[in-house]
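1st attempt posting a full record on here, be nice pls
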Amino acid sequence: MNTFTRFSGTVGVLDAIDVDTDQIIPARFLSVTTREGLGACCFADWRFDAEGHVRTGFALYRPDASPAPVLVTGRNFGCGSSREHAAWALLDYGIRVVISVRFADIFRSNALKNGLLAIEVPEASWRVLREYRDREVAVDLEANVIQVSDACSIPFEIDGFARQCLLQGVDSLGYLLSFESAIARFEERGPRPENT
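the predicted structure (as tokens):
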């Protein structure tokens, strides 16, 4: 997992509510056990027609085929099943940050654990960001701020443990393994007397 400190990218807007995980990554693509290649299936039923042709009317369509890495989306994004593949697909597709007024809880947890920064903002801030379609913003995780312009920044909050893992570029297991030498020293002390 890559470290996440400050990231600048173009804003894409998917102005839809209740986007479920089956719309993010349809179930027919879930037979794989690795993350690589899932980006090609991300939003597949919206990006492609039945013959596999690109739908230029899709909200996230870009002529150069590269996605905008900062996704501003409607309320309750990631609802439905708890599939971790949804976060994997978004990351492999090229999205690093997803911003909404409200995420489905399991999706947000999966996103943060896998290096996808899921930020919840108040409705007024979301409306400002939505107007920045195809423009660049900077997301600073160290300062917990989205820099929209020189005159406009939007603060955000994120779970402290998830924030530390993203800043260090580790998942939960990687975080625990960073204490491996301290754990080994503790175990070397031998058995502890039982409380009486």
